[in-house]
Amino acid sequence: MSLQLTDVTLTFPDGASRLTAVDRVSLSAPPGTLTAVVGPSGSGKSSLLAVAATLITPDSGRVVIAGTDTSGMKRSQLAALRRSTVGMVFQHANLLPSLTAAEQLQVMALLGGRHARRARSRALELLDAVGLAAEADRRPHQLSGGQRQRVNIARALMNDPAVLLVDEPTSALDQQRGAAIVELIAGLTRQRATATVLVTHDQSHLAAADRVARVLDGRLTLQHDTVQRSIPADHPGRGGTLST
Ligand SMILES: Nc1ncnc2c1ncn2[C@@H]1O[C@H](COP(=O)(O)OP(=O)(O)OP(=O)(O)O)[C@@H](O)[C@H]1O
Questions:
Q1: What is the pLDDT of residues 21-39, one digit of tens each?
Q2: What region holds the ABC transporter domain (predicted)?
Q3: Does some domain include residue 76?
Q4: Global pTM value
Q5: Does residue 37 sit within a domain?
Q6: CA of 87 to the centre of ligand 1 (A)
Q7: Does 231 have pLDDT greater than 70?
Q8: Torsion, CA 240, CA 221, CA 92, CA 169, rounded to 10
Q9: Pocket test for ligand 1, best of 9, 10, 11, 46 (most atoms within 8 A of CB)
Q10: How far apart are CA 69 and CA 164, in angstroms?
């Protein structure tokens, strides 16, 4: 299991008391599957994703990423673990205005301590995978909203993460471009055997997911598997047929 949350609770200060944003949630995400997390506004979806990303430490419960139990880890250790095993895609692409599409990806590899020349070829390979081979040398202002989000997705995959966490990636896009982005994420999840968790408001995105988790008032109320899929057997450490 690439991502495992066990009995996780997260609270925030709320006046004299505390608000429970995530309430005893257990969720596991196997490699090569897309888990959609849906629920009304304020139900705790983003909080759950932030805990899974180790950006926030929960009050209680356990987060295991790619076999590493993150409990008690120092901030620097968590940052290193995130760099090597977690890719994150947020609502807005947040690209650096002065860098080309390829350079946005190369920066990630250099931060991850990878070799510069290999970083360039990997960046071009990933931009091709998201349909942007011809846009590699364009800067963000020369790209459409959907293209910027594709660069964002490719960037998140640069360090070959075991876990891909995606928060509302289509909110700035129209229905058609949004659906194409979710299809792209689903395809990359299977190709690259990432354990992907996608937070979305949009019910129409659920068709692309293997599993659906519903959150209400911080609780996971229902989780079901939609289909059975196989993942590439030659992917290191992630191969085999998967029964979700
Ligand atoms: N940093 C914070 N400090 C205090 N309360 C917070 C904080 N972040 C979230 N909350 C509260 O936790 C609850 C869950 O919020 P969260 O953003 O996780 O929900 P969500 O389902 O992602 O909502 P949306 O779909 O609107 O983004 C809400 O009541 C919210 O007000």
A1: 999 999 999 999 999 999 9
A2: 3-242
A3: yes
A4: 0.89
A5: yes
A6: 21
A7: no
A8: 50
A9: 46
A10: 17
Task: Report which of residues 108 and 22 the model is more confident about.
Answer: 22
Instruction: For residues 180 and 199, give the distance between their C-alpha atoms in angstroms, rounded to a whole number.
Output: 16
Residue with the smallest CA separation from ligand 1 atom 18 is 44
Judged against a pLDDT cut of 50, whether residue 184 lies above it is answered with yes
* Assembly ipTM: 0.96
Structure-block tokens of residue 93: 């692409």
- Assess contact for 6 and 62: CB atoms under 8 A: yes
Banded pLDDT at 230 (limits 50, 70, 90): very low
pLDDT mean over 53-79: 96
Query: In this structure, which amino acid lies at residue 42?
Result: G
**CB contact burial 11-32 (16+ within 10 A = b; e otherwise):** beeeeeeeebbbbebebbbbbb
| Residues in the ligand 1 pocket, defined by CB under 6 Å | 12, 19, 21, 39, 41-47
Question: How many structural domains compose the chain?
Answer: 1
Q: Please check whether residue 20 lies inside any domain of the structure.
A: yes
- Candidates 186, 193, 185; CA nearest to 236 is 193
Residue 43 lies inside a defined structural domain of this protein: yes
What is the dihedral angle through the alpha carbons of 149, 150, 155, 158, rounded to the nearest 10 degrees? 160
- Give the whole-angstrom CA distance, residue 230 versus residue 109: 29
- Domain span at 72: 3-93+161-229
At residue 202, the pLDDT reads 86
CATH number at residue 206: 3.40.50.300
